[in-house]
Predict the structure.
Amino acid sequence: MWLRRFMPAAIAAGLAFASALLLASCRQDMQDQPKYLPYRGSEIFPDSLSSRSLVEGTVPRGYLRDDQELYTGKTGANVAPTAPTATAAATSASGTSAVSTQPAAATGNDVNEFPFPITREILDRGQERYNIYCSPCHGVLGDGRGMIVNRGFRPPPTYHQDRLRNAPLGHFFDVITNGFGAMPDYSMQIPPHERWAIIAYIRALQYSQNANIADVPPDQVQKLK
């Protein structure tokens, strides 16, 4: 009686165990097939690596920096390329290979004109990005009184001092891209076009805090009165 009661369960357990063994043997056969894992050693190639290096001068898709002023904020013959290339590959002692994609710092003269027309849509985008990435330190008015300053951290300079009001546009692009002083770089978080949008909004903030009636278009003066 006892054996009859537990016989179906024992048979089911045995079938499940046999099925697991069969499945495991198939999977193990695929795992053990001849192959090279990434960055593993190899006797086929002279550099002893199974992975092939990129062709000299390779530029990743979307990283062709063909507009010097747009992507560096600089003008002049000494501007360093910002596109990561395969020439930065380095091999470590363990035999692994890595390609550096960190752009080199650009040198040259700061531009003082936007590389594309600034529209209201771009300004709105710049305001949005500024409020996300910049206002915690620089404040919503650009006066250097952001939230982290209120919490006791080091205040950044105000945008409304003469030095920064008269600074060329390329200076702000360079700081956003490469960082400056206690400020880290935001090259990974903010694409180049959005950096220019932020700079346009910074200029708008500067005008808003330091404008006079002569700066207002004639057709708008009457509205102010």
User: Anything to note?
Assistant: The two ends are 103 Å apart (CA to CA). The longest strand covers residues 89-91. Confidence is low (pLDDT under 50) at residues 85-104.
